[in-house]
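This part of the workshop introduces the protein records we will be handling. Getting from the letters to the tokens is the skill we practise here. The record below serves as our worked example for the rest of this section.

…
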Amino acid sequence: MEWREFTLKNGIRVIYKHIPEFHSVSAGIWIKTGSRFEKPDISGVSHFLEHLLFKGTKKRNYKQIKEAIEGVGGTFNGFTSEEATCYWIKILGKYLDLSIDVLADMIQNPLLKSADIEKERKVIIEEINMYKDIPAKHVFEIFDGTLYGKHPLGQSIAGTVESVSGISRRRMSEYLRDFYTADNIVVSISGNISEKEMRKSVELHLSSVRKKDENEYAPWDKKPAGPKVKALRKKTEQAHIAMGGLAPCRFDEKRYALMVLNTILGGNMSSRLFNRIREQMGLAYSIKSFAKHYNDTGAYLVYAGVSPENIEKSIEAVIDEMKKIRDGGVKDNEMDRARKFITSQILMGLEDNLEYMLWLGEQRLFRDKLITVKEAVEKINSVTARAVKSIAAELFKGENFYMSIIGPKVDVDRITRKMSAL
């Protein structure tokens, strides 16, 4: 049995895996809402609410929330992405009911006290400013804005100083009421559980959540319109470069070929970019590639941190490696290493019941039919060199090439011409 699931009368979906050999259990409440669901004037509200839900409920103040979980040795946290918000607890199996009680209390009964809102508003503004002072992180926000433009996917998850400053308690309450509803909630549980007690706990604490239709967001339907580059000139010791373009969505079978392509290109220390740009040319300490997938689009990205004088040389090397894969394909030994690396990372990652809970919860939130671990491994192992070359040809082209750079001196025109060579 890989997992089991059931649905409460109000529509909340519950998915779980019983792992009796573990002492612990991980439980998460997922809500289908995030930055892409937000209008510009309340950009950052999902992330803002995630912070505030830890500040106290009608049943527990902020100290009692922390002490209830940490007092029995548990850990807890939350996160917000473009399409989901999740609150989770990892705790010994005998305290599962406590974890469900606390999580359910947080999402249904937050106080949203004015004093807490103003304190956390300052904290989040400092967080936004902090990321602006970390070029290796801020460059990705600029990249998203360059790739997706004014679409909500181009918004920062944390919002802007202006939007966060203007979100009122009333707007937060309305957002919580409209988006934290039963049809948009998934409960994911993995670890040492009593199935009977778990069902009883979930029904007790979550059956009162009200129903509403699925949350809606602005779809993405634009075609690539590159090459485009956006530079932020800033006095830094190192230049930070993010480059890439649109890629398949989470439901597209071509994402498996992209996973293999990404691993070969820059996904680990055996990759082409690492070997060429770091080992052979000595241009970068950090060089990597990765992919992101949403419901209706995605992105492939390459990141490099280099000396300002090596910006153009590094970009040329990345473009050259992309062209080599696109035009010449990949070798059999690269394919073999990449497939083994990906499948091993998946299997080893899922040995942690927190990771397994996150994997189950994200799938159930977005998919009608879940993919088993066995199916995922089989799909990766079935990727051919021809499929990798094909997805490279689809993605690696000038019109689908975008770039953001933070550094002291950037010649945008020269870099744009180099991008056009892809």
Remarks:
- The longest strand covers residues 284-293.
- DSSP finds 16 helices and eleven strands in the chain.
- The chain has a mean pLDDT of 97.
- The first helix runs from residue 45 to 52.
